[in-house]
Write a structure and sequence with these properties.
Blueprint lengths: L2 H28 L1 H22 L3 H6 L1 H22 L5 H8 L2 H12 L6 H21 L11 H25 L5 H22 L8 H29 L1 H4 L6 H13 L5 H17 L14
Helix pairs in contact: 1-2, 1-5, 1-10, 1-12, 2-4, 2-9, 2-10, 4-8, 4-9, 5-12, 5-13, 6-7, 6-8, 7-13, 9-10
C-alpha cells in the first residue's frame, strides 16, 4: 500500500472500531431499532448529496430493487442486531465476533456462487469456526440483564449480523457488480432507513435520549457509516478488495481499546485467545497468509 492508502486503512479501522463504542453508548437510550434507523438516516443524508453531485442518481433508480435488498441484509438487519448485542456484550467482544464476517462470506460464496475453496481456505474456515464456538461457549449465559438481553442472545445476534454481512457481500458481487461504490453506499443506507422506519417508530424510546446519546448517534452515522463507506470503497479502488479487507484484523483492537478507555471494559485472556483463533482462521479463509512453495529437489 502507498502511505495514503495505509492512512486510509488505519482511519477506517479507527472509525469502525469506534462504531461499537458509539453503539454501546447510544443503544441503551435509543433502543437497537431506533438507533439503527437513525444511523441509516444520518448516513443517507450525508451520502446522497455526494451521489447527486456525481450525477449518479439515475444508476440508483436503475438498480433500486437489488440495492433495496442489499440495504436490508448489509445495513438494516446487522445494525439492529449489533444494537441488541451491545446491550449485553462489551465493545471489544462484539467486534471480535464481527471479525468472523469474512469466514461467513467465504462459506456463502462457496455454497451460493460455487467459488472454489482450496485446502488452506477450508482449513481456515474450520479454525475460525472453532474460535467462534469456543468464544461463544466461554461467554454464553442465559440470565437476562436489565435490558432483557442475555449473553447467549447477544452472541447469537452477533453471529446473525456477521452472517448478514457475508450474505450482503456475495449478493452485491452477484447482482450489483460494476455499480459505482457511491451508488451502493448511499442507496443501501437510504433503503435501510426505509426498511427500519416502521419498526423503529414502533420501538421508539419512551423518553427523549440525552445529549450524550445524540452525540454518539451523530458520530456513528456521519463518521462511522458515511465517511467510513467512502474510505472503504476508496481503498477497494486503490488497493483491491483483499488488501482493503485487512481492516478486519484491526477493528477489534481499536474497539477493545476504546471500550477500555471510555467504559473501563476488561480485555480477558479468553477474548484474546478466541479472537486470535478467529483472526488466524479468517486470514487463511481469505487467502491472506502466504504459502511457501517447496523448491524442487536436486539430484
Amino acid at each position: 500500500m502507498k502511505p495514503r492508502d495505509l492512512l486510509d486503512l488505519l482511519v477506517l479501522a479507527t472509525l469502525w472500531g469506534g462504531s461499537f463504542l458509539f453503539m454501546r453508548l447510544g443503544a441503551t437510550d435509543f433502543g437497537p431499532l431506533a438507533l439503527a434507523a437513525l444511523r441509516c438516516i444520518g448516513a443517507a443524508l450525508f451520502l446522497l448529496p455526494l451521489l447527486l453531485a456525481r450525477g449518479q442518481w439515475p444508476l440508483l433508480r436503475q438498480h433500486w430493487r437489488a440495492i433495496g435488498v442489499l440495504g436490508l441484509v448489509n445495513s438494516a438487519l446487522p445494525f439492529a442486531l449489533f444494537g441488541v448485542a451491545v446491550l449485553a456484550l462489551n465493545a471489544g467482544l462484539t467486534a471480535i465476533f464481527n471479525a468472523a464476517t469474512p469466514l461467513w462470506a467465504a462459506a456463502i460464496g462457496a455454497l451460493w456462487l460455487h467459488e472454489r475453496l482450496g485446502p488452506a481456505r477450508v482449513l481456515g474456515l474450520g479454525i475460525g469456526l472453532i474460535g467462534v464456538v469456543g468464544l461463544a461457549w466461554d461467554k454464553a449465559g442465559l440470565r437476562s440483564n436489565e435490558y432483557g438481553v442475555s449473553a447467549t442472545l447477544a452472541i447469537a445476534a452477533c453471529i446473525a449480523a456477521s452472517l448478514c454481512y457475508g450474505i450482503g457481500a456475495n449478493y452485491a458481487k452477484k447482482r450489483l457488480a460494476g455499480v459505482p461504490s457511491m451508488v451502493l453506499a448511499s442507496g443501501s443506507q437510504l433503503s435501510a432507513a426505509l426498511w427500519l422506519a416502521l419498526p423503529a417508530w414502533w420501538a421508539r424510546p419512551a423518553a427523549l435520549p440525552g445529549a450524550g446519546a445524540w452525540l454518539s448517534l451523530a458520530l456513528l452515522a456521519l463518521l462511522c457509516t458515511g465517511v467510513a463507506y467512502i474510505l472503504y470503497f476508496r481503498l477497494i479502488a486503490h488497493t483491491g478488495a483483499t488488501n482493503a479487507s485487512a481492516v478486519t484484523f484491526l477493528i477489534p483492537a481499536f474497539a477493545a481499546a476504546f471500550g477500555w478507555l471510555w467504559l473501563d471494559e476488561a480485555l480477558t485472556a479468553s477474548m484474546l485467545a478466541g479472537g486470535a483463533v478467529i483472526l488466524v482462521g479468517t486470514a487463511l479463509a481469505m487467502g491472506l497468509l502466504p504459502r511457501q512453495r517447496l523448491a524442487p529437489a536436486r539430484t
